[in-house]
Amino acid sequence: MECLRLQGFRNLEPLDVQPAAGFNVWLGDNGAGKTSLLEAIHFLSRAKSFRTNNLDRVIQKGSERAWVAGRHAGHQLGVERRPGATRLRLNGTDIRGRSRLAERLPVQLITTEHQRLLLDGPAIRRSFLDWGAFHVERDHHAIAHRYQQALQQRNAAIRQADTRAAVVWTETLAESAERLEANRMRFFHRLETRWNRLMESWLPSLPLAIRYQRGTGSAAAWSDVFEESAPADWEVGFSRNGPHRADLLIQSDGRPARDILSRGQQKLAIIALLLAEVEVWMEHEPPPLLLVDDLPAELDTAHLTAVWRVMAGYNIQAHVTAIDLRDLPLADTPSARIHRLIGGRAHPVGS
Fold first, then answer.
1. Do residues 133 and 183 make contact, with C-beta atoms less than 8 angstroms apart?
2. 247 SS3 class
3. Hey, which residues does 5 pair with through a beta bridge?
4. pLDDT tens sequence across 38-58
5. How far is residue 42's CA from residue 204's CA, in Å, rounded to a whole number?
6. What are phi and psi of 217, to 5 degrees?
7. What are the b/e assignments for 113-125, b being 16+ CB within 10 Å?
8. pLDDT class of 112 with cuts at 50, 70, 90
9. CA distances (Å), 202 to each of 73, 90, 291, 305, 347, in order?
10. With left for phi above 0 and alpha for psi between -120 and 50, is residue 242 left, alpha or beta?
11. How far is residue 19's CA from residue 121's CA, in Å, rounded to a whole number?
């Protein structure tokens, strides 16, 4: 991202910066606005917040609106939030659809909250897979939307005992399911190779593996799965099988990794998953941005340094927060640009 501007966002004062092409470190005490700065960049990409579902909360107290703008890979992006309404801009024109921003500004966020990928239910891991595929399979967003539409319509037809409509929507559902799963699997295999390499380096003594679980106990084509499950689906009133029930399993000797790994090991496994996704995205345009909040939490010095060195080897822009420079192994990134946030205002420290 060549430039970043914002105003009225959380506790941040008006900001206009040109970040370094590589590492940018944002220093500050608790409450200084470090996480809000990452949230603003994420907001510019997704028109969503990773901290709240109520977007009005990003509007600074006393402000009528919050806006964030930036330039990345030749595109001008902007997002404005007024109470109850969000406005999206791309290259000077109002647009509809958050995906048009996201595809031009891919961001990967790493926070302590991402251990939910390991600890929560399958929905969050399906979302991870679909965002991953979105940035490498250009038709994925449309296919996922078509699948969800067909799923809703098939379920409605089943509840209404509309046999004819159920047959029609089952055909669409099966076709969309095949394409959706094919995209996911192509992405998953590329992800798996990179995750395995990081885990073998960071946790070599643990037999860890990731596996894609289809969302059915059958290996059959989806048209056959839906046909075979139709009587039971009609009995319960919804589609019990499908990619909407898929999961990304993280295991150690066949057991859930969350039951075996320490908190620090869990964080390493999830960071590896997120960085493996970044490595897949780096093979496509535009380049992703890496946003990292509170990296040292729950990592010992050796593993913190190992993770940092991997990130330092990426030829992408990163924004990393810290309370103290001594918390980070900056010797591996001597060209990092340092910014200090004091009371929501940014001050350059040097490079």
1. yes
2. strand
3. 16, 69
4. 999 999 999 999 999 999 999
5. 33
6. -80, 0
7. ebbebbeeeeeeb
8. confident
9. 33, 40, 21, 11, 35
10. left
11. 36
